[in-house]
Amino acid sequence: MPIVTEKINDVSIIFADIKRAVKVDADDLKNEVQIELNKGSTKFIFDLSPCDFIDSTLLAAIVISYKRIVESKGKLKIVGFKPLVHSMFNLTSLSKIFDIYENRQKALMSFK
């Protein structure tokens, strides 16, 4: 599965190990978030560093996941934007909503 989760301390890192993220990946992302929420996780990092492209369904999945996380009193950080992905977040103004970091380490440190 190209969407995998790893835990570092109490942070769930959801890693999108794909070049082009499309609808099936969006469904996997939402499922992974729900699994982690069901386990009681409240701190999340989405690592999009391998992604050269994300479509609107993945953007929607990120927004839906963010809403679920916030409703569970959680926090979400996003890392690893390549230029085209960064442009998508800027064009949709989502870069103003999300906490975006250049790498996992900085995102992890922001939870402390």
What is the compact description of this entry?
Helix content is about 45%, strand content about 25%.
The CATH architecture category equals 2-Layer Sandwich
Mean of the pLDDT scores? 94
CATH topology: Transcription Regulator spoIIAA
SS strand fraction: 25-35%
Helical amount among residues, as a percent range? 40-55%
Helix-strand category: alpha/beta
Structure description:
The chain is of the alpha/beta class and 112 residues long. It has one domain: Transcription Regulator spoIIAA. It has four helices and seven strands. It has helices at 23-38, 56-71, 83-91, 104-110, and strands at residues 3-8, 11-16, 20-21, 43-47, 53-54, 75-79, 99-101. Strands 1-2-4-6-7 form a five-stranded mixed β-sheet. A two-stranded parallel sheet has the order 3-5. Helix 1 (23-38) runs parallel beside helix 2 (56-71). The longest helix has 16 residues, at 23-38. The chain is globular, with a radius of gyration of 13 Å.
Protein topology:
Blueprint: E1 3-8, E2 11-16, E3 20-21, H1 23-38, E4 43-47, E5 53-54, H2 56-71, E6 75-79, H3 83-91, E7 99-101, H4 104-110
Parallel strand pairs: 2-4, 3-5, 4-6, 6-7
Antiparallel strand pairs: 1-2
Helix pairs in contact: 1-2
List keywords for this structure.
112 residues; alpha/beta; Transcription Regulator spoIIAA; 5-stranded mixed β-sheet; two-stranded parallel ribbon; 4 helices; 7 strands; 43% helix; 26% strand
